[in-house]
Every structure is written in C-alpha cells, then in structure tokens.
Amino acid sequence: MDCEKCKQLLNPYLDGELEGSEFAEIEHHLEKCPDCTAELDRLVRMRDLLRELRAVEVPEGEREVFINALRERLEAEGIPSPARKRDPRPVMVAAIAFVLALVLLVSLPRGDQTPKIAPAPGLNAFQNAAFDAMIVGALDNHILATSGDFMADPAATGGQAIAVWKVVRSTHNDIFEPAGK
Amino acid sequence: MKEETRITPREAADGAMAVRARDSRLVSRVLSGDNQAFEDLVRAYYGRVRALVFHHLHREDDLDDALQEIFIKSYQALPQFGKRSNFYTWLFRIASNYCIDRLRKKRLELVSLDGAEERDSIEARLPNGPDSPEDVLGRSERVRMVRIALGKLDPIFQNILVLRELEGLSYEEITESLNINMGTVKSRLARARAELRRILEEMDAI
C-alpha cells in the first residue's frame, strides 16, 4: 500500500470501519511510514477534541415537561393522528360481490344443464361457479382480515363467512350429509 | 403511563435488536391510534435528538421549538416509516434535515455580514453566560473554539460530523439516516474532517 491509498483509508480506519485485507495492509503501512502515522495522529487529536462536545445532559424534569407541552400542542392545533384509517372500499366491494352472488344463486332457474365442475345437487354450472366464488371470497376476506393484511373488520368478514355457511347448510344439506346416512 | 410500555434500563441494555423490536411495537401502536406509544418514543429518544439539535444550532433558547417541530414532523410522517430501517436513524434523518434547513436559512441571514461579524455572531450563539451549561460542565476554551469551528462548516459537513463523532453512528447507520450510499458517507466524512481541520488550524486551535 502506498501513502496516497493509505491516506484515503485513514478515516474509515480511524472509525473502525475497515476489515480484512485493507485493515491488515494499512496497519502494515503505518508501522513503517512516519508521515501517515503523523496524519493519523492529527485525525485522532481532532476527533478527541470533537468528542469533548459530546456531553449534553438533559436537565432533570425537562423531558416530561417537553412531552406535556408536545401533547398540549398536538391537541390545541388539532394535529391529526397518524393512525391508519380503515379503507372501506375492499369491504364494500366484498359486500357487493356477496349480494350479487347470493341473488344469482337464488334467482336463476335450476336448469337441467350438466354441471362441469364439482356439481352440487340441483345447481346448474353457472350457479355452481357463483356458489364457489361466494364461499371462497368470503373465506379469503376473513382470513386476510384476521391476519391484519386487509383493512377490514374481522367481525364483518366473519359474519359474511357464517352467512354463506348458513345458506349452504340450509339449501343444500345433502352436500354435507353423505348419501345413505 | 401504562406499565407494559415503560422503557426500562434493562430493555435499553438488551441491544440493538431489542431496541428495534420495541420501537417497531411502539410504532405499530401509534399507527393503531395509541398516542401514549408516541410519547414513549419521544421519551426514549428525547436526549439523543436534543443533543443532535444542540450540536447543530449551538443555542439552548431555540431548542424547545426545534424539538417540537422535529417530533411533530415525525408524528405526521410515521405512516411513511417502513420499518426497514431503525426508528432512530429515521428520526435522525428528520432532525438532520430540519437542522440543515435551519442553518442554511441562518447563513442567508448572515450573508451580508463580513467575516468578523459572522464570527461574532457564531460566538454570540454559544452559551457562555455565568449560569450556562457550559460553565456547569466546566468546558474549556478549546472546546469553545471547536464549537465555533464546527459552526463555520457547511451544514452538510457539520451534520455528518455530529452524527459520526457526537452521536456515534456507524457508517451503516449514517447511510440509513441520510439516505446516501456508503461511498458518499466516506467521502463526505473525509471532506468534513479536512475542512474542520483547516478551520481549526486557522484559529490556532489544533
């Protein structure tokens, strides 16, 4: 290592921010270079001077006086809380989807089309898909709400999930009761 | 204050991870509407922020207003704190920006003064009256000269020296506090020290 490189690294060396080979190289260079050692000494003296400014003590009781004054100012100026506001939009969208799916399920005539996926007794394919979406959507919303990732009230999403469950139980009990039982 | 939110000496000694976890919990509670948790954050960092501001402004009589502005800014900006950094480095960023702004405005006010008057002005800002903390702490004239020299630095240089030498932040913490990369931390710190040394040499203080 030459003097120019050493002087570039003196600051991080002084601050304990050098590691590995650079640390070893600068130590080796300083052992044999009086100029760089003198430069390091000047940096150390200045750092020590600066650090004499460190002691700034908080007068007794000042902290609590400050906190009281801050609280009063927040209240007096009506500075709004940074608390996250619950965004009602996802809940509204989920509620509308739920109502639409429910209307679809109840109002569509039970045709004799052959359901293609997971047929529930007495449902056509369209009703079946709506049913699936409603159940999965309600459960997803509730899981997200309870995990805190979704700004919705878990009580509301839980209510939706239970409502779906009740509809399914009351109208299609045969889904849950194995045949012949 | 609620018992479970009190910052105990044991908690403070538990290391950086525990402090970070505690701050994260407090921030979450503030964001849930609990203002008591914000007061706990202020209580935890009042001393360090107070020292940081004092080392920039060099006067006691402005401290209270400056600290109120800084903590209110942090209160309002709390939803933007991403928890990817330490809370205190984020708070120091707000405090640093405030101090640099204040110093720049002050420099503009002083721009019409000549060098001697500017020096007088900086000296006049230093607390050296008979009842000042300077006397109470028994600070030497040499320390007083360092304060004057620090006050003559560009605010950006003054800020990085305060963070490193007086607040004891590591380079990594400075990158978080100032939102600059490691290379800029190293070069800015080296330039700040060189400039401070030049001023101190001019003043025959070193």
Q: Would you give an account of this structure?
A:
The complex is a heterodimer of chains A (181) and B (206). Chain A is mainly alpha-helical and 181 residues long. Chain A folds into 2 domains: 3-51, no CATH class; 89-176, no CATH class. Chain A is built from 8 helices and no strands. The longest helix of chain A is centred in the C-terminal third of the chain and has 23 residues, at 125-147. Chain A starts with a helix and ends in a 5-residue tail after the last helix. By secondary structure, chain B is mainly α. In chain B, 73% of the residues lie in helices and 0% in strands. Chain B has helices at residues 9-13, 16-31, 35-57, 63-77, 87-110, 115-125, 133-136, 141-152, 155-166, 171-178, 182-202. Chain A binds chain B through residues 8, 11-12, 15, 17, 42-43, 45-47, 49-58, 63, 66-67, 69-71, 73-74, 79-84, and chain B through 30-33, 35, 39, 42-43, 46-47, 50-51, 54-55, 64, 67-68, 71-72, 75-79, 133, 137, 139-140, 142-143, 146-147, 150, 161, 164-166, 170-171, 186, 189-190, 193, 196-197, 200, 205-206.
